[in-house]
Amino acid sequence: MIDSMIERSTDAAHLGSGRPQASERGFTLIELLVYSLLLSLVIMIVGGMIFSSVTAARSVVNTTETSTSAQLVAKSVVTGIRNSSDFRLSNPVGNDQLLVARRASSGATLSWICTAWYYTDADGGSIRFKSSALPITAPTPAELSTWTLLATGVTPVSGTGIFSALNERLSLSIHGLDGLHPPTDITTSATSRAGASGSLTCF
């Protein structure tokens, strides 16, 4: 009887060591390849969406920065001319433009200060600003580098200059460039307070 039980146990062990149950099976090579392919497709789709989002965000930032820079130039010029008694526009060299204005400064009593904007089409176009208690003349390249940089990548909307003057009225028309994206156009004008008195001579 004991021998019979041993034989049955041995037969059961042999039967158990045959094909594994379905729950114990692993992945086949083909299944792994299919899963890997599906995972790669998902990563490519998600990566493409992220790249598109980053590119769109960068485009918005560049356009905003360009628009802000152009608006900064327009605000500086318009405010300066509106608060000026007179101004002078000249072409120191080539297509460069120098705009000098005698501007009333803020304070309890009226006082005057010289302000100037210099546009050059060198290096893609730039506008710089300077204020002084002394007359402002056309700067040398070394002197111009010390002026405050307002904007780069600026070109005229038409013609060769961004400034134009008629009597006491000054007009400003600029393209603000940011590389691959469409330019931001800003056109504005301001009139000086001609006839205001003061002892300071700016040009």
What does this structure look like?
- With 203 residues, the protein is an alpha+beta fold.
- The protein has a domain at 64-191.
- It has three helices and nine strands; from the N terminus they run H-H-E-E-E-E-H-E-E-E-E-E.
- It has helices at 2-16, 29-82, 141-144; strands spanning 84-90, 97-105, 111-120, 126-132, 148-152, 154-156, 163-166, 169-176, 184-191.
- The strands form two sheets. The protein has a five-stranded antiparallel sheet, covered by helices on one side. Strands 6, 7, 8 and 9 form a four-stranded antiparallel sheet that branches.
- Strand 7 and strand 8 (169-176) form a beta hairpin.
- It is elongated, with a radius of gyration of 37 Å.
- It starts with a helix and ends in a 12-residue tail after the last strand.
- The model has no long low-confidence stretch (mean pLDDT 78).
The order of strands across the largest sheet is 1-2-3-4-5
Number-wise, the strands total 9
Largest sheet data: 5 strands, antiparallel
Computed Rg: 37 Å
Share of helix, binned: 25-40%
Q: Which series of helices and strands comes N to C? A: HHEEEEHEEEEE
Number of helices: 3
Give the N-to-C terminal Cα separation.
127 Å
Structural class: alpha+beta
Hey, roughly how much beta strand do the residues contain?
25-35%
- How would you sum up the global shape? elongated
Write the layout of secondary structure elements.
Blueprint: H1 2-16, H2 29-82, E1 84-90, E2 97-105, E3 111-120, E4 126-132, H3 141-144, E5 148-152, E6 154-156, E7 163-166, E8 169-176, E9 184-191
List keywords for this structure.
203 residues, 5-stranded antiparallel sheet, elongated, single chain, 4-stranded antiparallel sheet, alpha+beta, 9 strands
